[in-house]
Structure formats: C-alpha cells, structure tokens
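Minutes, project check-in
Item: structure for the 397-residue chain
Input as provided by the requester:
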Amino acid sequence: MKITSIRPVLLSAPYACDTNLEVRYHLPTGYRTCGLVEVCLDNGITGLGEGYLPVFAPHVFESIVRLVAPHMIGTPAEDFAASYNRLCRICDYWSFQGAARHITSAVMSALLDAVGKTKGVPAWQLLANGAAPPERIALYGSGGDSDGPVAMAQEIDLLQGMGIKLFKIRARNHEVAKARWVLHEAADKGISIGIDMTQNLARPSQSIDDIVRFLAELEGMPGVAFLEETFGPENLTDFPQLRERIDVPVTGGEIVTTAEELLARMDAGFYDWAQPDATVLGGPHEVMRCFEAGKRLGVRVVVHCWGAGVCQMANYHAAFAGSADLAEWPMPTYPLREALMVEPLPIKDGFLTRSDAPGLGVQLTPEVEAEYHFREDAIYNCFPTNVVTQDPALWAL
C-alpha cells in the first residue's frame, strides 16, 4: 500500500441557527468551513482526514497540504510512525506548533482510514493493538451558547430525549446568572452541567480569584461537573494552584497541537481531565499517547471534537481504542457531520456504540462536494464588532 495522491478538500455548510451566539458573533453568513485531506493509495482505496485550521484559514490549509503532498507520494501507507516523522520533518522547523500540525493531523487520520478500509477493519482495531475496547461510551452534549432561556431550554430537552446526562455550556465569569439558570433548569431534567469558560486564548486571562468568585456565586445551585479552558496562554502555570483551591474537576487541552506539550501539562498536574483532539494534535495515534499517559498519571482523557464528521469519527475511534468512558458530542446542527459518515452515529440512551465499519467509517462523494462547495465568506471572524453583554435579568429564575 503506497500513497499515490493527496489533495485538500474545502467544504462549507450552514451551521447552527440564529439563536446561537457563536454564529451571531463569529459566523455572520451562517456558514462554516471544514477542511479534509483525501489520500489515495495504489490499490484504489481512498482515506479521509480532517484538520481544524480551515474554520479560520482555509487557504493556508490548502497551501500546506500541497506543500507536503509531493514528499508523501510513493511512501508506504501502513508505516504510520514513518509517515508521522516525515510530516514533522517537512513542517516542524517553521510550524512545530500551530497551523501545520492540523495538516499532519488530517494526513495521519486519512492514512488510518485508508489502511483500515484496505484491511476491512475499523480504525479502533488498528489503534488498540489487541486491547479490548468498550462496546459503548457515554457522551456529553456540547453546546450551551444559546442567546436566551427559550433556546437553552430546547437544548436541555434535546439531551433529555437522547438520554445524555451531561451538558457543557459556555459561560464566562460575568455570566453567573446564565450559569445559575442552566444549573437549575437542567437539574430538573436529571442533567449535570459542565462549564466552558472560553479562556483558552484570552489575553489578559481571568485569574484564579475570578474563578473562585464565579463558583462562590453559584452557591446553592447543583454542583458544577467540570470547568473547561479556565486560563489564557499567559496563565497556564496557574492550573495546579487552581485545582488546589476548588473541588470542581478542571479540564483543557483542546488547542494543544503536540502530544509532547499535552503530556507535559498532564504530568505537571494541570488537568483532572485532558481533552486531546485528533484534528489538531497530530492525528489519532498521538491521541492514543494521551490515553496511555492518562492511565499512568490518573488523568481522565475525554476527546474533544468540534469539527465535521471526519473529526468526530477520528476522535471516537481513538476514544474506543483508549477505553474512554466519556466523549464530546457537538450539538449545533452541521450537515457536514452526517453527510461524511457511512452510517448515522449509533447513539442510544446517552451512549455511543462502537462501530465495525472499515476505517473511520467516513466517505466523500461527488454529490457532497457539489452540494457543500467551499464559500469564501464561510470563515470564522475572530474580531466581531457586534458582541453585546447580556443583561443578567434575561436569565432570572
């Protein structure tokens, strides 16, 4: 099995709805882009991988794929370690962390998909190396960025109907009223709440005291299941002290682009839960390194997956191979999730059942490429000018 071609694919599709604050502030056209890498082998089999970069910089993604492709043609598809090292050699000098890692992630996922399809086995089987993975994994619903109680209640009802018992919302440290409302309403439906504080790139970052104060203002409410992305890049070393001062599990790691960095954070006691993502970390094999370290260090590993369908499947296969007990399920509607899957996700009673479809269980058809063709205006806006601070009274109980 040798690589004969590699091409970038950009697709755009409607995302979420107009009650979603991410759309309102960052995706003004209502469309979102995903970036795929399609690898073709000399046996005619193709594999798909996804990198997260095209949400923000689609043409950068395309350019880097075209840069690395000639260096991969003719190399063995099944030697994953050699392929990874080759990709690193091409890109590490100028992008050891960051953009190029998303392309490495996509190519490695595509190779795993293609080899799995060739062998007729699911990707988790190739990753597990003979270990027996669980038959199902609990999911948590990841959303909670609605503009008011009506839409937020609909999110809670959706999860209740699916049997999902954990709901991650977005709430910054000035959004205590929102957090209190959701904690109260979800408890009546038997659903626990995790809070993403969206600080992973914040400059300046909130402080430990800000977080302690935020949690104190939630006193009397059902307990918070976890806090995610509590600090910006300038305050990373505050994580261990935060964990000493609060009794809520602390999570993070979704934007980390090398396993070495995430493993170092885990070893230094940053997180109770680590959240690797196969679309940014270097591919599913690098996520597996996190699972191995998690078992050694006593850190729970919960895959993050906020991309399209290939992103989901790459992460879920790693989760099964790593014997995870929980994984993220993105709630905003996005047809490029289901359209890229061979079969619908088997979710029942809040659990995802393991799939035996060959490879990652993904596909790209000419019809999907035509229907969801790339749009130049489907780019995430990192500098929105229309952000409005909500009146806390909106969320009065």
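Outcome recorded: The chain is about 40% helix and 15% strand.
No further action items on this chain.
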